[in-house]
């Protein structure tokens, strides 16, 4: 064991303060988590600096622009997080960063900075799968509500992760024991929102734009397809094409926009809900969780909550403030991994294609 790695029992059994960095795509994020014996898991600070404005002109994320901006923003963001919590680097027990999946040049910025901070303070460094961060985020307490579950344990459950890069159904058998049972065969759900928003002349990221315009729209105005590929997989590219072919026939786009947005959104929700219920039945899980950027969508949250209630499943969604990319979920995944017995490892490198588990 190197001088930077604490013994397993040392780091597992006492109050811990973790600082995490997340730079897998176009969000620079820093969070500090404290896990005390009484107060439970507390996110002391969670800062996210979004680059959405920089990428908007391109309609999507430009890797070179993203990594340069992480370099500019990350250090001041770490300083701000320490200042807001009154902590010094030496007060941090372990530094955590996202290892992958994501853009290589973006991942490198946060990963290298967390390693450097850990090395300089003689503390462990741990790297985390971004998708595991999303997957565990429903068990993170909403800072707006009283702490209900101070020492979260991860039960067996069915996890739906819907983000800009991934749409996954994962059978979580226990903490760290994941089986990928469904995924998209083309576009991810968030990607479909972004691409359809672009077709409709709305800005990036498209999810919040479509959700806003869908309010007051009729979700049954347009019959868009509910593509149901094999088993528990998803496909959203046909839906995007259906919107594309519909648009030239629409006479007054301004008036029809709410109906187009609501109908598209409903088609995505119907598929996500249907497959999640099927997956939960097939795996015998009685809890379904929802996470990832698309889980911000309140129609999806309430649609899945209602369907779970009607079918006898429990439902837990990620707190909206931790749905899109953030470092609090990475810190939390770091804590859960440390508690599960994993320890720091300075030799880990980034992996842009890091799988959550083999299918
Ligand atoms: O998890 P995330 O922040 O980044 C990835 O790991 O990909 O997810 C970003 C995605 C984007 O595609 C964005 O359009 C989508 O989440 N999104 C939404 C909403 N807010 C963000 N999709 C639907 N409705 C929303 N309110
Ligand atoms: Zn993400």
Describe this structure in words.
The protein is an alpha/beta fold. The chain has two domains: 3-143 and 324-339, 2-Layer Sandwich (Nucleotidyltransferase, domain 5), CATH 3.30.420.40; 157-318, ATPase, nucleotide binding domain (Nucleotidyltransferase, domain 5). 40% of the residues lie in helices and 19% in strands. The chain contains eleven helices and ten strands. The protein has helices spanning 8-12, 52-56, 63-85, 104-121, 130-136, 189-199, 206-214, 237-246, 253-283, 298-310, 328-339, and strands at 16-22, 27-36, 40-50, 94-100, 125-129, 157-162, 167-174, 177-183, 287-291, 314-317. The protein has a five-stranded mixed beta sheet, sandwiched between helices. Strands 8-7-6-9-10 form a five-stranded mixed beta sheet, with helices on both faces. The radius of gyration is 20 Å and the shape is globular. Mean pLDDT is 92; it is low at 1-10. The chain binds 5'-O-[(R)-(carboxyoxy)(hydroxy)phosphoryl]adenosine (KG4) and zinc ion (ZN). 5'-O-[(R)-(carboxyoxy)(hydroxy)phosphoryl]adenosine binds at residues 25, 163-165, 190-191, 193-194, 205-208, 211, 292-294, 296-297, 324-325.
Features:
single chain, 359 residues, alpha/beta, Nucleotidyltransferase, domain 5, 2 domains, five-stranded mixed sheet, 11 helices, binds zinc ion
* Uncertain ranges: 1-10
Question: What is the CATH architecture term of the largest domain?
Answer: 2-Layer Sandwich
Tally of separate domains = 2
Distinct small-molecule ligands in the complex: 5'-O-[(R)-(carboxyoxy)(hydroxy)phosphoryl]adenosine, zinc ion
- Helicity range: 40-55%
What's the number of helices? 11
Order of helices and strands: HEEEHHEHEHEEEHHHHEHEH
Structural class: alpha/beta
Give the amount of beta strand, in percent. 15-25%
Describe the biggest sheet? Answer: 5 strands, mixed
Which fold name corresponds to the CATH topology of the largest domain?
Nucleotidyltransferase, domain 5
